[in-house]
Amino acid sequence: MIVNDQQLQIAQAGVANLQCVLLAARKVHSPHEYRLMAAPILLELQQREQEILAYLSQTEPEAVRS
After folding, report:
1. pLDDT in tens, 3-61
2. 29: left (phi > 0), else alpha (psi -120 to 50), else beta?
3. Measured in Å, how far apart are the chain's first and last C-alpha atoms?
4. What's the sign of the alpha-carbon dihedral 53, 59, 64, 65?
5. What's the pTM?
6. How far apart are alpha carbons 24 and 36 in whole angstroms?
7. Cα–Cα distance measured from residue 66 to residue 46, given in angstroms and rounded to the nearest whole number
């Protein structure tokens, strides 16, 4: 769970890195191989993006409340 803006930036960088991995993989793998290797990465992306959206949906960041 993301609790402050620094963790948000780290999560966003992680999402960008995973997206770059997928973009590069599409260029070198067959469609079948890509689907197999991309599935767990796409799931990880979904989870990280969900955490980012949950943090951004907060009306008052945890860091401010402390």
Report:
1. 999 999 999 999 999 999 999 999 999 999 999 999 999 999 999 999 999 999 998 75
2. beta
3. 16
4. negative
5. 0.83
6. 15
7. 29
